């Protein structure tokens, strides 16, 4: 089917495109390898409040925070450009010897030239209790020397599927010589 100028009519092209899309969708629906999982009905939203302590161990034989990119030496007192990879313990109490409830895995980078402002991207992986196997994801700015900081909770898995909320951070202690720190996290999450 062609017109005098050798081109196909637009209606034929649209019809062909429609048939292709329609039959591809039907074939995909019948092919078990291409089936999308059925979403479970969402349960009523809950609010969960958590408190734990995050331990950043930079010093010693077994650091939980290592430098993967050293920032340039351009007289930045903030360490601008430095990037750390972390696998930090989360504990019930402020001491590193307290009962461990999970791990914080991710990265943080010095992202400010004027003050110590970190860009943090972390997964809180719970390994004990009723949230064992569940995670929370946090990404945001941490102004380390402010008494109280707030960071957004942007997601989660397991018990925290579709989580959203915030974490309030307070430094419990910081060793300025080693860089080791313990930070209290008070987390409020809304989830299903």
Automatic annotation (TrEMBL):
GO terms for biological process: phenylpropanoid biosynthetic process. One of its GO terms (cellular component) is apoplast. Keywords: Apoplast, Secreted, Signal. It is found in: Secreted, Extracellular space, Apoplast. It holds the Pfam family Dirigent. The keyword Iron does not apply. Residues 1-28 form the signal peptide. Homodimer. Belongs to the plant dirigent protein family. Dirigent proteins impart stereoselectivity on the phenoxy radical-coupling reaction, yielding optically active lignans from two molecules of coniferyl alcohol in the biosynthesis of lignans, flavonolignans, and alkaloids and thus plays a central role in plant secondary metabolism. This is Dirigent protein. It comes from Nymphaea colorata (pocket water lily).
């Amino acid at each position: 089917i062609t017109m005098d100028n050798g081109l196909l009519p637009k209606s034929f092209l649209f019809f062909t495109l429609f048939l292709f899309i329609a039959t591809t969708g039907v074939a995909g629906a019948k092919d078990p390898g291409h089936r999308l999982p059925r979403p479970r009905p969402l349960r009523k939203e809950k609010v969960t409040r958590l408190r734990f302590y995050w331990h950043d161990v930079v010093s010693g034989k077994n650091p939980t925070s290592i430098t993967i990119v050293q920032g340039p030496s351009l007289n930045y007192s903030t360490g601008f450009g430095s990037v750390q990879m972390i696998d930090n313990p989360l504990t019930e109490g402020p001491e590193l010897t307290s009962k461990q409830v999970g791990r914080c895995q991710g990265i943080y980078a010095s992202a400010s030239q004027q003050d110590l402002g970190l860009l943090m991207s972390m997964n809180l992986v719970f390994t004990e209790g009723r949230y064992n196997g569940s995670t929370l994801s946090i990404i945001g700015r941490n102004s380390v020397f402010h008494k109280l900081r707030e960071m957004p909770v942007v997601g989660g898995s397991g018990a925290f599927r579709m989580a959203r909320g915030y974490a309030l951070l307070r430094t419990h202690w910081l060793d300025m010589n080693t860089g080791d720190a313990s930070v209290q996290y008070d987390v409020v999450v809304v989830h299903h």
